């Protein structure tokens, strides 16, 4: 039998799958939901924060600019200044520039447009310019003040131009204007302070044309073509709202950012703050990571749990399976231990044990039935064999009988037909003999031949007698005889030649037998005659009788002749079988026939060179009449 | 005067040889080859002894036995046979009037003596 491949039960995987689904799916859903929720919340909160910051910075920027304008405004309204005394103005302007490093260049222009004072940090030219046709000057003279004209001062620093009217305090009439260029790099410093690099937040100030005024990363400012990314600018410039914010995906880098903006009132500038989503969602990312970790832990836990549960469930099932395999092999006595927990599986095991018990009983019944059947079969076979043997021997017997009957019939006809001519010859020779003897001097040779013929007639007649005697089927005429006296009479009357010594030895029990005396005599005479014939010179002829058992007596006729080989001994009782030069071969066949007719049997044992013993077995008559004493 | 013997047998050689030797033994023989002639001869010649074969072509020996015994019980009837007779056959023959059975071939002297004994016992001496 082939051992089934040892598979780690599929049940284990099923359990694992179910457990994993049951534990991980809700966890995943909740985690996903929470992360999403946190992102949304963060999104909203950060956007709100950034918006607020933007608004705050808008105010700051506005105040900053207004503050400097106010400085100029205050100075322009000073009497020393409005007096248009150039020397005094020069001193004031110099003082302002000393006080406020942000001012790059300040010019004083009179009402005619002539420059009267010109001071600059990087300007060492003292040539006065004519502003009479200058648009800015005209604007200031008309509107009273001006803030604008953003530029890259010296090609690098973002700068703004401010202008205020110089007003005569008495007449309250404009007498000229003060124009100042002011560096805005301080705004970048301000943004940098508010949004240091570590916060991963960028802030910028732009004007309504997209000109980059300030940036939390001051390097951005000094770039010749400094400006915000186009997609951000598009959003900012196309938006009508004063404040706002939201998530943007930057086209250039593909980075997701949270942006917020606020308008700087009066100036028309926009404060823009952006923070990278990855930074903004730090917390939710942490949450996501934790969720993953939790799922990993749960998976490991579920693996262990699943294994444990499957062990608890599959172990008994495995045991049951092994038991079932053993049962299948017909091993009822060595089933594995099936002591099971007190639950459904235990019940199953109990039922299994009951089943195996009942199976054991049934199998034993079947086995015994099978054995019985085999025994009956064998006995039937034996009976059939025995019957076949009987039939065969009966058939053989029948064939033999038919053959013997045919032989008998033929012998009878032949014998009868030969006897007639023999009788005629016999009569004729008698006539010739009588006539010859009557003559005075009978020829001796004629007498001798007459005698030969007579002898041959006797011989021929003897042969016919033998054949007819064997073929004759007369009724057996049994008489109760005491064997000893019968044998004694028989041997006494039998002519034993002088060269043979007859030795008689009879059973002391003198058993009684039921025999046809004539037939039995013929048989025994044939045996004795045979014995004498094989001892032509000298020898002993034994005639014995011996009680073999209570029911059988054996008569031996033994000679000390030449004996015969085994092959001859086997055929010796067949009719017409003979080893002699003359003879019918019926003598021993008659013996056998007589033995058979007396419900006895005849056997021969012979040793070549030593002699032959014929053994005639006859049934002993039980409860015979008293033997004559 | 010699005793008369009638020999009935269909075998010519046997019949003739038997007649010859019986004549030689001093009997006076007549012969017949079949039952019909045999019975006629017996009626005519009144033999002292009839020796007949038990099987004749025109009749069985037993029938002739009966026929012959119908008109005379004074003769001796000897049946010749070439085979063994069963006890029944012997009994039947004897009951129908046969005196003796002889089996072929037979010794003439013995037969002769037996005939004479039978005749003398019956008182038929001539």
What descriptive keywords fit this protein?
heterodimer, A: 629 residues, alpha+beta, Beta-Lactamase, Heat Shock Protein 90, 5-stranded antiparallel β-sheet, 15 helices, 54% helix, B: 126 residues, alpha/beta, Rossmann fold, 5-stranded parallel β-sheet, 5 strands, 47% helix
Give an overview of the whole structure.
Helices cover 54% and strands 20% of the residues of chain A. By secondary structure, chain A is α+β, with helices and mostly antiparallel strands. Among the domains of chain A are: 77-183, PAS domain (Beta-Lactamase, 2-Layer Sandwich), CATH 3.30.450; 477-619, Histidine kinase-like ATPase, C-terminal domain (Heat Shock Protein 90, 2-Layer Sandwich). Chain A starts with 9 loop residues before the first helix and ends in a 10-residue tail after the last strand. Chain B has 126 residues and is an alpha/beta fold. Chain B is globular. In chain B, strands 2-1-3-4-5 form a five-stranded parallel sheet, with helices on both faces. In chain B, strand 4, helix 4 (87-95) and strand 5 form a beta-alpha-beta unit. Chain B has one domain (4-122): 3-Layer(aba) Sandwich (Rossmann fold), CATH 3.40.50.2300. Chain B has helices at residues 12-24, 35-45, 61-71, 87-95, 108-122, and strands at 4-8, 28-32, 49-53, 76-81, 100-103. In chain B, helix 2 (35-45) runs parallel beside helix 3 (61-71). The interface between A and B is medium-sized, with 25 and 21 residues.
List the helices and strands and how they pair.
The complex is a heterodimer of chains A (629) and B (126).
Chain A: H1 10-76, H2 79-82, H3 86-99, E1 103-110, E2 115-120, H4 135-143, E3 145-153, E4 157-167, E5 174-183, H5 185-194, E6 201-206, E7 212-215, H6 218-222, H7 230-238, E8 243-249, E9 256-264, E10 269-276, H8 277-280, H9 282-328, H10 344-438, H11 444-471, E11 479-482, H12 483-493, E12 500-505, E13 512-515, H13 517-533, E14 539-549, E15 552-558, H14 566-571, H15 587-597, E16 601-607, E17 611-619
Parallel strand pairs in A: 12-14
Antiparallel strand pairs in A: 1-2, 1-5, 3-4, 4-5, 6-7, 6-10, 8-9, 9-10, 11-13, 14-15, 15-17, 16-17
Helix pairs in contact in A: 1-9, 9-10, 10-11, 13-15
Chain B: E1 4-8, H1 12-24, E2 28-32, H2 35-45, E3 49-53, H3 61-71, E4 76-81, H4 87-95, E5 100-103, H5 108-122
Parallel strand pairs in B: 1-2, 1-3, 3-4, 4-5
